[in-house]
């Protein structure tokens, strides 16, 4: 926790807004998407889904295949507490919706379905978007599949299994968006990145959640930034966003989103 707090202070000192950006592509993204103040009617659907999950006291026996939990001491976890403690925040889900709406992703991959809060946000940005989402825990997977049906989250395929094994079968696909929100460890994150790199096109976007979750995650983020195929990155503190646009000069932005 101390590492995260110190990292945040460093982020605040280094970060800027649209006025420190000279790239037209990134400037438009920040002003028209990041800082879009429009009150989208879709926000009520995001709130409805999250409030529904918060109302569920059911306990799920969790199989954790990732880096473990800093919050939960046992594998028996109530749905409502999972939402409160580890679910995507309102700020994150709204921005994820706006990104999906802004870029109109057609084919997306998510590593770490959990209760489907982020999945719904991606889906609502473009309901024609074909989403593949992977969850490691069979019990959470089954629970969330039922919620997708209940809330009409269509064009979404939920796969269950170890990320490393499942993504090996997906490397011939091309994804507009890959949202990495699962195993928050350096080695695993870099492995997922390298494995899925062939699925990226010039216009693809990779989003890495919790890049300051640990020193190892930050180190993984720094390695990803320097990869020769990566041209532009945005550090929002809670996310690291990667672009592969060959027409862009390599540049790294630290933006208060």
Summed up, what is this model?
The protein has 257 residues and is of the alpha/beta class.
Sequence-ordered SSE layout with sheet pairings:
Elements: H1 2-14, H2 24-34, H3 42-54, E1 59-61, E2 76-78, H4 79-86, H5 90-103, E3 107-111, H6 117-125, E4 130-135, H7 138-150, E5 156-160, H8 163-167, E6 175-180, H9 186-196, E7 200-209, H10 215-226, E8 232-235, E9 239-243, E10 251-254
Parallel strand pairs: 3-4, 3-6, 4-5, 6-7, 8-10
Antiparallel strand pairs: 1-2, 7-9, 8-9
Helix pairs in contact: 2-5, 3-6, 5-6, 9-10
The CATH class name reads Alpha Beta
Mean pLDDT: 93
How many domains? The number is 1
Give the CATH topology. Answer: Rossmann fold
Cα-atom radius of gyration? 17 Å
Number of helices: 10
Structural class: alpha/beta
Helix content: 40-55%
CATH architecture heading: 3-Layer(aba) Sandwich
Provide the β-strand percentage band. Answer: 15-25%
């Amino acid at each position: 926790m101390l590492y995260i707090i110190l990292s945040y202070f460093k982020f605040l000192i280094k970060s800027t807004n649209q006025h420190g950006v000279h790239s037209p592509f990134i400037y438009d993204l920040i002003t028209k998407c990041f800082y879009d103040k429009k009150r989208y009617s879709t926000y009520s659907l995001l709130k409805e889904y999250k409030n529904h999950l918060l109302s569920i006291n059911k306990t799920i026996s969790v199989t954790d295949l990732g880096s473990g939990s800093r919050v939960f001491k046992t594998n028996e976890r109530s749905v409502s507490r999972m939402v409160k403690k580890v679910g995507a925040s309102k700020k994150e889900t709204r921005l994820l919706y706006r990104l999906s709406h802004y870029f109109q992703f057609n084919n997306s991959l998510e590593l770490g379905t959990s209760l489907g809060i982020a999945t719904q946000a991606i889906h609502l940005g473009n309901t024609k978007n074909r989403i593949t989402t992977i969850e490691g825990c069979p019990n959470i997977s089954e629970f969330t599949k039922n919620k997708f049906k209940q809330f009409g989250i269509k064009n979404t395929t939920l796969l269950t299994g170890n990320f490393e094994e499942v993504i090996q079968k997906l490397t011939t696909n091309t994804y507009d968006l890959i949202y990495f929100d699962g195993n928050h460890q350096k080695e695993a994150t870099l492995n997922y990145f390298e494995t899925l790199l062939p699925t990226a096109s010039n216009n693809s976007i990779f989003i890495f959640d919790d890049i300051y979750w640990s020193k190892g995650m930050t180190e993984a983020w720094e390695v990803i930034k320097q990869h020769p195929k990566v041209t532009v990155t945005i550090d929002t503190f809670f996310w690291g966003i990667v672009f592969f646009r060959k027409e862009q000069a390599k540049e790294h932005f630290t933006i208060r989103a």
